[in-house]
Each structure stands twice: as C-alpha cells, then as structure tokens.
Write a structure and sequence with these properties.
With about 260 residues, the protein is mainly β. It has one domain. A hairpin with a 7-residue loop joins strand 5 and strand 6. It starts with a strand and ends with a strand.
C-alpha cells in the first residue's frame, strides 16, 4: 500500500523549486480544472545568493538585472488518485492497470494570449496558479512551452558587464524560437503519495541562476565581444559563440526532477 506525505520545501541548483501550503486568489488563476492548485513563480537569483555561490563562474564583472520568458502553453501530466469529476474536455485520460484506484491524465493549459513572465525578484505580478483536481499524487509533470511573440524573444536577459578598465557595458541575451522548454517532474519517493487539495498547494519557484548559464564564458571572451552603440548583444546574429554556449547551458538546466523524501 502506498503512503501519503505532505509537501516539503525543496532546493535544486540551476533552477530552484519550493513546495509549500499557499493561498491563491482567483485573479492569479489560469485555465485549468479542479479545486487544487499548482503555483508557478519565476525569479532571478540575486548575485551572491545560496545557489549562485555554488555555481562555477569563469568570469567576474557580470551583473544581471531583469528579463522575461514568453509562454505559449503548459502541458500537464497527472498520475495518482484524484477526483475525476469536473475534468475538462480535451485531455487524455488513462487508467493504470497496476492499481485500480490510480489514474493518469494529460492536459494542455492554453492561455488566452501568449503569457509574458518577467524575471524580477521584487515583482510578483506575473506569478500564476493552475487548477488541478484534488487528490493524492504519485507524480506531476509539467512542460512549459516557450515561444517568441510580437518581435520579442522567447527568453530575454538584461545586465551589465564591467570590463577590465572599470567601464560598465550593458548587455542583452535574446533567444528566439521554441527550441527550449522548461520541464518539471515532481514525484513521491519510495512508493508514496503527496497531497494536493484546497489547503496543500504546490508552489514551484523557478529561481533562475544566470551566473551558471554564463559559467563557461571567459573574461577574455567578454572583453573581445562586439559592442554596437554601447551595447553587447548575445544572439544568433551577434556574438554567436557566446550566445550558443549560454543557450546550450540553459537547455541543459531546463529539465528538473524533484523527488519528495
């Protein structure tokens, strides 16, 4: 028989995930179903923070200020014992042959328009919650599909670089397209369940660590980077070598697996 456990606080380097009991308001909700909720927050990890201290940075002088991602849709995969009543149409529902009480449900959460989520640790206006059925879960998987929109990139990151002479040069990292998706897998440990209901709400905090993304970029590469009108731009068309190294590191960090002890 599987055991049930409460949600606990979790930490992962590169992207951080917390889970705790939270209250939500209807204004924070996005399309979904059920009386349970899953919260999504996106913040930059301040320089010198706990996660940043564990990231190996090949250069000094980088400072990150803000940015955003643009989300096209969310894909949910729920596995466990949960209330089927009120499940919206359009999802894919399968029963697990190993347990008569356990089910798996896949559902796409589509926004009315592309959702732009800003990276700012002081601003929570873009945080949001998704309705899911109440129940005991063995696993919740989420895929966050990114997309560029209205001539703005899928991922934007702004900051400044202080060169060897002490001059501050603003920079911008921009990635267009839908090549990178963030994936989160939350699962119970040792054949257990965790509860999601009106009281126990998972809140996933993506604490983004750009120092880690730029960890393979040397100071020499930054010193020799092209500057246009006082700006360094890292993109497919400008400073491509640096851009591709950062893009590859983001992609490597974009998949998260959380195991509840």
């Amino acid at each position: 028989m599987k055991k049930t456990k409460n949600l606990s606080r979790l930490l992962i380097f590169a992207i951080t995930a917390y889970m705790y009991t939270a209250c939500t308001s209807e204004n924070d909700m996005v399309p979904g179903t059920g009386e349970g909720t899953v919260g999504m927050l996106f913040k930059l990890q301040p320089a010198g923070g706990a996660v940043a201290a564990n990231a190996r940075v090949a250069n000094a002088g980088l400072s990150f200020t803000d940015g955003f991602i643009q989300i096209k849709e969310l894909e949910l995969d729920l596995e466990g014992n949960f209330n089927r009543d009120g499940l919206v149409s359009g999802g894919s529902f399968d029963d697990d042959g190993d347990d008569d009480n356990e089910s798996e449900w896949e559902y796409e959460v589509k926004f009315n328009e592309i959702k732009k989520v800003g990276f700012d640790q002081f601003n929570n206006e873009t945080d949001f919650f998704i309705n899911i059925p109440e129940g005991e879960y063995e696993e919740i998987e989420m895929e966050i599909d990114l997309i560029d929109y209205r001539n703005e990139p899928s991922i934007l990151l702004n900051g400044t670089y202080t060169d060897g002479e002490g001059e501050e040069i603003p920079f911008r990292f921009e990635l267009f397209g839908d090549d990178i998706d963030f994936e989160v897998e939350i699962e119970a440990d040792d054949d257990r369940y965790f509860v999601v209901d009106r009281v126990n709400n998972p809140l996933i905090l993506f604490e983004l660590v750009p120092e880690r993304w730029f960890s393979s970029i040397s100071s020499l590469e930054l010193e020799n980077a092209d500057i246009d009108d006082g700006f360094m731009v890292f993109s497919e068309t400008s400073n491509r070598s640096i851009f591709r190294k950062v893009r590859d590191r983001i992609a490597a960090d974009a998949e998260i697996e959380i195991e509840l002890d």
